[in-house]
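Journal club side-thread
Mid-discussion, someone asked how the predicted structure for our own chain would compare to the paper's figures. Pasting it here so we can look after the session.
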Amino acid sequence: MTRRLTRLFAGCLLLCALGCASGEGGGWTHGSTYDTNLRTIAVPVFGNATSDRKLSQNLTEAIVKEIEGVTPWKVTGQGRADTMLRGTVTRYRLIMLSKDPTTGLANEMLVEGTVDFEWIDLRTGEPILARAGFAASALFTPSRPSQQPVELGRFQVVQVLARDIVDTLQAEW
């Protein structure tokens, strides 16, 4: 009886895998979710309306790495690019979530970053996508025993923003 159930289960899995991989009428597909008609993207350094001078440079570098790591596109200069992703960091703040009742020092802090960005098709000059108030946050623990520096919080929020921004560049499906 066990062998029969195993074979039946394996057959069901095979049918499911074949149906999902077909790409017809929904289900899973093996193709890219990014527009493969585009080949290059320019990413100038994002503007920065915050007091943290390193934030826009760190975000731009993280976005470039994310684009080159997960999309089929190559990051290049604006003069040779099909599209351009540009933006401005509009807000960066630290929010105390909890504090030590004895010392009053922060136990947990939230770093929040907000970005306005637009993705432009340089061949037509038309915007492909625009977002205002695009936000992300990250948690860090500045108190003992972790004693994580604020730079760790900045790094984490930059990574989340970069990943989320590049994820929004996916083709509609």
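Post-session note: The two ends are 43 Å apart (CA to CA).
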